[in-house]
Amino acid sequence: MKKLLRVLLVSALLLTLAAGAIMAQGPGNAVHSPEAIVNDYPVAELSEKQIADLEFMYEEEKLARDLYARLSEEWNLPAFANISQSEAQHMAALEALFIKYDLEKPAAASGEYNNSELAAAYQEFLARALESEAAALELGRELEIKDIADLEEVMIDAPEDFKAVYANLKAGSENHLAAFDKVSNDERGSRGSQRAQNNQSGRGNMNRNNNRPNRSGNRK
């Protein structure tokens, strides 16, 4: 009995360790660490454009994080909170490049940006997204589509470590886009079902009203 108990305990321990190892790894047994990704590549000589692209992408990811966090407070849709957290991870991945190349990353409070165009865009996007849940979801889709396009553009002629990070971010943005599409479709389906129920209820009321006598005593 004691031997069997020891075997069970050892098996449980091995399963626990294996689960921890799996959680610490991603597809292809790659560890989820931004530093590990960028440090697998040699240090490159960066151009001013490549540095400017990095700064822009960092603030664009920050804009998405800030906006989704604000919308998660306004609308009862878990997708905004979840994707906001994912955008924070995107920022951490880009930050690893700032650290590797000893660059100063843009620093600003939530909703504030060093890039004046992004600062103006945040206010415009927020105003649109506060109009309705549908508007917020559509804006989320637009942001992810733009992010994917921007990442594809900055990947051109980027160093290999930059490309690796940008490719991971692009895959994440594609997942975000799919999530927004799903939530939008679910919301439309829910609204359509509610309208159908309301219409059915309205037809029932009309039938009852049509059976009421008119002033002459005859039924309509």
Automatic annotation (TrEMBL):
CDD domains: Ferritin_like_AB2 (cd01048). Residues 54-189 form the DUF2202 domain. Residues 182-220 are annotated as: Disordered. Keywords: Signal. The keyword Signal applies. Pfam families: DUF2202. Residues 197-220 have a biased composition (Low complexity). It comes from the Bacteria. Residues 1-24 form the signal peptide. InterPro entries: DUF2202, Ferritin-like, Ferritin-like_SF. The keyword Signal applies. This is DUF2202 domain-containing protein. It comes from Halanaerobium saccharolyticum. The lineage of its organism: Bacteria, Bacillati, Bacillota, Clostridia, Halanaerobiales.
